[in-house]
Amino acid sequence: MTRLLEGKTVLVTGASAGIGRAAAIGAARHGADVAINFSRDTAGAEAAVKEIEALGQRGLAVQGDVSDPETATAFVKAATDAFGKVDVFVNNAGICPFHAFLDMPVETFERTMRVNLHGAYFMVQAAANQMVNQGHGGAIIAVSSISALVGGEYQTHYTPTKAGLHSLMQSTAIALGRHGIRCNSVLPGTILTDINKDDLADQEKRDRMAARVPLGRLGEPDDLAGPIVFLASDLAKYVTGASLLVDGGAYVNLQ
């Protein structure tokens, strides 16, 4: 297998499980040393590092709540101290506590904003500053969502954050292009992760949602690993400000 990220250092937020973990393992499989951020799941983070190391790469887990701006500088510093540089940054950390719109608790709304959007802003900023200081460019990938393009009845607090991530990558692509830093987003469809396990606990609902996907199934975290590795690699050296739908065709299936 061609190792597309040979010699690179990759940072991934929210990587103790789900899409973040799949991205971290995928990067290691392609030759990268990987630092992961996690909030609470120590066992999951340790297991992810062991899997990275089993692939012959260096791994590092750094705990921190992304809603705190200081977590961003601490994470980037720890990774740089350990591996010497930051080549690729993947902003994945996010939450989606499903709730109706009319009685949305203020704290639920604000917490979702702080984690998904504010956290992403300061994480991307910290990684970009390190890349600029290094002087050899880099790649930033944000895990947005199909929810950046469509609505969700119980996601009125969540969908604006994912639209914001999509927009952030477009704007940072302009701001950072002169430094050789590419900024892109992936927009997953419905992926089976902890974030939606309660919402999809009803098998009938899962089957109904899968039937709407042209490829005939809901997504798995590993379905995002390839697209993220591609955008991180030199294969995408002239791709910036772009977004890549990874949804099995769900978005285009309107009839």
Automatic annotation (TrEMBL):
Residues in Ketoreductase domain copies: 8-194
Keyword vocabulary terms for this entry: NADP, Oxidoreductase, Rhamnose metabolism
Catalytic activity: L-rhamnofuranose + NADP(+) = L-rhamnono-1,4-lactone + NADPH + H(+); L-rhamnofuranose + NAD(+) = L-rhamnono-1,4-lactone + NADH + H(+)
Root EC class: oxidoreductase
Pathway in which this enzyme or protein is active: Carbohydrate degradation; L-rhamnose degradation
UniProt keyword annotation of NADP present: yes
GO terms (BP aspect): fatty acid biosynthetic process; rhamnose catabolic process
Pfam family, one: adh_short_C2
Keyword Transferase carried by entry: no
EC number in record: 1.1.1.378
InterPro entries on file: KR_dom (IPR057326), NAD(P)-bd_dom_sf (IPR036291), SDR_fam (IPR002347)
GO MF term list: oxidoreductase activity, acting on the CH-OH group of donors, NAD or NADP as acceptor; quinone binding
Family note: Belongs to the short-chain dehydrogenases/reductases (SDR) family.
PANTHER family (alphabetical): (3R)-3-HYDROXYACYL-COA DEHYDROGENASE (PTHR42760:SF83), SHORT-CHAIN DEHYDROGENASES/REDUCTASES FAMILY MEMBER (PTHR42760)
Protein name: L-rhamnose 1-dehydrogenase (NAD(P)(+))
Species in which this protein is naturally found: Croceibacterium mercuriale
